[in-house]
């Protein structure tokens, strides 16, 4: 089977403190994977690195060759609202998904317009085209951002906590979009906290607690032993930060007192 991302000994540090530590493994093309772990486990950091927004401090992430074209890896950051000094309408935000094909200054043609209409219908927002996005509810905004992802039509889609703060109906609708992407053979990776949802809808799971705890079929990856191990590690880093022996990572040891020791 083809590999979408190959991680070799990936460490990502902020100011010398490793947030992701020595992760190795592959994301198979066409897989649907949940990234799970305690708060501060490095999930968002790892996802941002897959998106190419963060460079590993040590080790490397190789992408399959077909993912080098612009827009081939779609990324949805944690929901935080859209900040803009000028009013953006739903249609304009969804049309941004077509930018990798038409360019920032290009015109959206008939074919793209049809894709936008179809995407809005799929997320239940037909008729919302002219609404201002900063007047939408959190759930409606997330539907708009999913419509943008549908229009982008990327082979790889990365989602950071896509269902947090959403009601049951919105979650169900957007989960079915994710399942559809999986059926279409796209590679989907999502950071999630709801383990029941992961067990029901995500065949693969990567459990991280700064270091890799488990990665594989969800039932196995989320065994009680693995979850206990992840919790144990998170308690440990709340006490003292771990050392990183990777070259290029400054050795800083932070004690519970907050004092740094180099
Ligand atoms: N931009 C940054 N600068 C410095 N430290 C950061 C930055 N982003 C994250 N960190 C630190 O890296 C560690 C991992 O953070 P990250 O957000 O990746 O974890 P997470 O597993 O996604 O957490 P959560 O479940 O709470 O969202 C944390 O200790 C965090 O404080």
Automatic annotation (TrEMBL):
Keywords: ATP-binding, Cell membrane, Membrane, Nucleotide-binding, Transport. This is ABC transporter ATP-binding protein. It comes from Orrella daihaiensis. Belongs to the ABC transporter superfamily. InterPro entries: AAA+_ATPase, ABC_transporter-like_ATP-bd, ABC_transporter-like_CS, Metal_Ion_Import_ABC, P-loop_NTPase. It holds the Pfam family ABC_tran. One of its GO terms (molecular function) is ATP binding. Residues 5-235 form the ABC transporter domain. It comes from the Bacteria.
């Amino acid at each position: 089977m083809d590999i979408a991302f190959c991680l070799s000994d990936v460490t990502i540090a902020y100011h010398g403190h490793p947030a992701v530590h020595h992760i190795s493994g592959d994301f198979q093309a066409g897989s649907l994977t949940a990234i799970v772990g305690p708060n501060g486990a490095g999930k968002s950091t790892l996802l941002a690195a897959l998106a190419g927004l963060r460079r590993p401090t040590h080790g490397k992430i190789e992408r399959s060759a077909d993912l080098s074209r612009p827009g081939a890896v779609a990324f949805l950051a944690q929901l935080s609202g859209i900040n803009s000094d000028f009013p953006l309408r739903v249609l304009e935000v969804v049309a941004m998904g077509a930018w990798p094909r038409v360019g920032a200054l290009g015109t959206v043609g008939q074919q793209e317009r049809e894709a936008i209409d179809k995407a809005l219908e799929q997320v239940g927002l037909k008729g919302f085209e002219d609404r201002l996005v900063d007047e939408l509810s959190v759930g409606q905004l997330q539907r708009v951002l999913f419509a943008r992802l549908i229009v982008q039509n990327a082979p790889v889609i990365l989602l950071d906590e896509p269902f947090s703060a959403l009601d049951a109906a919105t979650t169900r609708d957007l989960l079915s979009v994710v399942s559809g992407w999986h059926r279409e053979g796209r590679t989907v990776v999502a950071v999630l906290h709801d383990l029941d949802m992961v067990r029901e809808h995500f065949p693969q799971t990567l459990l991280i607690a700064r270091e890799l705890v488990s990665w594989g079929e969800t039932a196995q990856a989320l065994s009680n032993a693995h979850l206990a191990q992840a919790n144990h590690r998170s308690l440990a880093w709340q006490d003292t930060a771990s050392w990183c022996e990777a070259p290029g990572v400054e050795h800083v040891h932070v004690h519970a007192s907050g004092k740094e020791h180099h």
